[in-house]
Amino acid sequence: MVLIALVIVFPLAYSFYLSFQNFDLSVGPEHEFVGMKNYTEGIFRDPRFLGSVWNTAVIIAPSLVLELLLGLGIAMLLSRVLHGRPIITALLAIPAMVSPVMAAMAWRMMFGVKYGAINNLGRQLGLLDVYFDWFSSPFISIVAVVLVEVWHNTPFMMLVLLAGLQSIPQELYEAARVDGANPWQRFWSITLPLLKFTMVVGVMIRLIDLTKLFGLIFVLTYGGPGGSTETVAFTTYLAGFKDFRMSYAAALSYVIVGGVLILTLLFFWMQRVREARAA
Amino acid sequence: MAIALERSAVVPQRAKRHRIWRGLGHALTYLGLAAALMFFLGPFFWILTTSLKGNEDFFAFPPVWIPAEPSLKHYVGLFTRSSGARYFTNSMVISTLSMISALVVSLPTAYSIARWRFGGGLLSIFLLVLRMLPAIALIIPIYIVYRTLGITNNYLGLVVVYTVLYIPFAVWLLVGFLRDFPLEIEEAAMIDGCSRLRALAQVIVPIIAPGMAVVALFAFIATWNEFLFAIVLTGIETKTMMVLVTSFTSGGTDMFYGEASASVVLGVLPAFAVAFMLQRYLVKGLALGGTKG
């Protein structure tokens, strides 16, 4: 416990202190109190950081939706399988166990212009007639990032939802079938309501993790083209370890922590309101 | 009589139709799963075959999907020219040390929480905070402290951070295993003259060893995969596999395919192992295991 305090609480306090200074490693070890300057710069005047907030949102939204839908679909397919479910589940779960860096590297090679699997497969099947550069435009780069992210983390969603599906008592479905409910009705009035809590938890965890999106960006695009895929974590990393503006980066990291906190609370609050309305 | 005849004709027909629908449903289920498997495992397959290709196969069109003469020369190149051996060892050493130290610290803590409910509430708060905290918020102060202490290019620095980040999760899992452990066995050992510590070491540990292995493997894979701390806190001598991989990205999108893919294959090996060994615990491990970055 003492160790935890030392390695977690102390740095956080120290970083909070730093965020009100103007510590810059490229200038020197001297620093002084500058008040809220770092925060106001980050929130109001730094187009790069503001842009990264927007980018992060643009990456998060479609990723979450796709991960939820795909994860739910695969989990439902899996729950219908009678033979070999453990092995298929384990195989499908592998991407989630892989480091984001490795996932991004594999995909970066697949996206390779001349020798990448995607362009070559596309050309072989006649879908592409040129060697396409997947990281040439901001829009397609974001699509690529979302694709890799979905590949990487849908398995997690799938595992969570599969666990949720398996906790739904089978008798409910039998009763519904006896009452003449078709599969569609069974899905909407049994599966979905009973799975809602699991879905909320899964989405919540993914949302929090996605705000930390760093390794994947670092390898796949390094924030490019033109900063269009820079996430908040990545911009903060650049501020701290490329520009060496330690105090500014500390302030940005606190802005991120605050943002994540607000997002989490908002999410729980919305959930609470919905449930209250339903009850 | 007539009615009975009619019914006997209808029922088999309906049953038959039912069977056809069912067969179709099963076929679609497996088809969907096959598609999912292709999407999720295809990249691994491609990386593996790429790492075994000779250079002329990279440039071939139509592309060579499965190399006719697989060769290990990229692995050799990775280990000799790109000093992959050193980075692989670094990753191994750092992950193993973090794993062991996390276990050693967590076990007594978990034991005291399981037996006397000491600090249990604090644990769940720590777990939650750690899960939410972006690693980027920790890395800046830790880097400055390490720089002043002069341990930025040192195994110890990384091991300490990883151990601490992993302790709450390890404790939480271990508490679960210890709660399931029958108190009677422990009491019997203590009546027979065991001290509490000896009972823990010689009676409980061997029995919950599988649980400890779960914790250990998760700790291993989490530290193996970690990137942000690794890239900031390592120097030339202590780089891990994750950092090595990023060095191949400098050549644009068409890069050093052979060695890059070989390093990815080595980098994802533990993930394969863990996914199969820890199936039952995957949800817990992924949902709560440490900070991702």
Question: What is the CATH homologous superfamily assignment of chain A?
Answer: MetI-like
Rounded average pLDDT of chain B? 77
State the separation between the terminal residues of chain B, measured CA to CA: 75 Å
Query: Which percent range fits the helix content of chain B?
Result: over 70%
Helix content estimate of chain A? over 70%
CATH class descriptor of chain A: Mainly Alpha
Estimated radius of gyration of chain B? 26 Å
Shape of chain B: globular
Q: How big a fraction of the residues of chain A is strand?
A: under 5%
CATH names the topology of the largest domain in chain B as MetI-like fold
What is the name of the CATH superfamily of the largest domain in chain B? MetI-like
Query: Uncertain segments of chain A of ≥5 residues (pLDDT<50)?
Result: none
- Tell me which CATH architecture of chain A applies here: Orthogonal Bundle
Catalogue the unreliable spans of chain B. none
Q: Using a beta-carbon cutoff below 8 angstroms, give the protein chain pair with the largest interface and the number of residues from each chain.
A: A-B, 88 and 86 residues
Number of domains of chain A: 1
DSSP strand count of chain A: 0
**Helix/sheet category of chain B:** mainly alpha
Explained architecture:
The complex is a heterodimer of chains A (279) and B (293). Chain A has helices spanning 2-18, 37-45, 47-80, 85-97, 100-110, 117-124, 138-166, 170-178, 183-210, 215-220, 232-241, 246-278. Chain A is mostly helical. Chain A has a single domain (2-278), classed as MetI-like fold. In chain A, α3 packs antiparallel against α9 and α11 packs antiparallel against α12. The longest helix of chain A is centred in the first third of the chain and has 34 residues, at 47-80. The model of chain A has no long low-confidence stretch (mean pLDDT 82). Chain B is mostly helical. Chain B folds into two domains: 2-59; 84-288, MetI-like fold (Orthogonal Bundle), CATH 1.10.3720.10. Helix content of chain B is 78%, strand content 0%. Chain B is built from 14 helices and no strands. Chain B has helices at 2-52, 55-59, 73-80, 84-116, 120-132, 135-149, 155-179, 183-191, 196-207, 209-225, 228-233, 241-247, 257-277, 282-288. In chain B, α1 crosses α13, α4 (84-116) crosses α10 and α12 (241-247) runs antiparallel to α13. The longest helix of chain B has 51 residues, at 2-52. Chain B is globular and about 70 Å long. Classes of the chains: A mainly alpha (279), B mainly alpha (293). At the A-B interface, α1, α3, α4, α5 and α6 of A face α1, α5, α6, α7 and α10 of B.
